[in-house]
Design a protein that fits this description.
The mean pLDDT is 93. The chain has a single domain, classed as Spore Coat Polysaccharide Biosynthesis Protein SpsA, Chain A (Alpha-Beta Complex). It is built from nine helices and twelve strands. Helix content is 30%, strand content 23%. Strands 1, 4, 5, 6, 7, 8, 9, 10, 11 and 12 form a ten-stranded mixed sheet that branches. A two-stranded antiparallel ribbon has the order 2-3. The protein is of the alpha/beta class.
Length: 259
């Protein structure tokens, strides 16, 4: 089956930990502009679309030459935001929902590698049956294992995501936590999801997830509802800016790239 890929970037201004972060300046450009430009460098998408409840962001997207859709401010997560406009997103692909790959790229990844989007499309195309949801993971270094701002993925032997957590998983019994990384591989989660369009359309009907509420990780709603999430490895993480410290890290990276 020939899949059509649509990249959808959910974004809002009122993020709880770092308000207006998507418009924060990083190396002379707003963070969100960097994300959208990186997405447009990927070869596989038929379209890149900003999905936002903010008129200010809608106007900014137009200035940057990017398509945008206005969503409700009541959306509880990025996936919920995309699900609310799944019909126009699928229409941009020109096919049926089950034949459309909607790639959810978070608006706070200013150094996203466009090749990850193309790798997502390729992974969908080579798997039979078509996955419900895919997400990239990376081998985590020891310095990130116990950082609650870095999301960990517990992966089965066949590559299915078993769980996502802000805590270090698995727990290595009888070993000092500083040395856990030497005993088992720890996988980090890159904040990108590839949804089959018909699966994304089911999001509003999924029951509330206590795990999602506890960890503040939207993908746990899928697992708790019995929707499988496949994984594929990528070489490295893509920095997600959730805190003031990470924003300064992003600015330092941008300064280094330009220097």
């Amino acid at each position: 089956m020939a899949m059509r890929t649509i990249v959808a970037v959910p974004a809002r201004l009122e993020s709880s930990r770092l308000p207006r972060k998507v418009l924060a300046d990083i190396g002379g450009k707003p963070m969100l502009q960097r994300v959208l430009e990186a997405c447009r460098q990927a070869e596989s998408p038929a379209a890149v679309v900003l999905c936002t409840d903010s008129e200010e962001l809608l106007e900014a997207a137009k200035r940057w030459g990017c398509q945008a859709l206005l969503t409700s401010p009541a959306c509880s997560s990025g996936s919920d935001r995309l699900a609310s406009v799944v019909e126009p997103l699928v229409a941009l692909g020109g096919g049926a929902a089950a034949e459309t790959l909607v790639v959810n790229v978070q608006g706070d990844q200013p150094f996203l590698d466009p090749a990850v989007i193309d790798a997502m499309t390729a992974e969908f195309g080579r798997r039979t049956p078509l996955p419900e949801v895919l997400t990239p993971i990376y081998r985590m270094g020891a310095d990130k294992v116990h950082n609650p701002n870095v999301v960990k993925t517990l992966v089965s032997s066949d590559g299915r995501a078993l769980y996502f957590s802000r805590s270090a998983i698995p727990h290595v019994r009888g070993v000092d936590p500083e040395h856990w990384h030497a005993h088992v591989p720890f996988w980090g989660h890159v904040g990108i999801y590839g949804y089959r369009g018909d699966v994304l359309a089911r999001w509003p009907q999924l029951p509330a997830s206590p795990l999602e509420d506890s960890e503040k990780l939207e993908q746990l709603r899928l697992l708790e509802s019995g929707i499988g999430i496949g994984t594929f490895p990528v070489a490295e993480e893509s920095l997600s800016v959730d805190t003031a410290e990470q924003l300064e890290q992003a600015r330092a990276i941008a300064a280094g790239l330009e220097g």
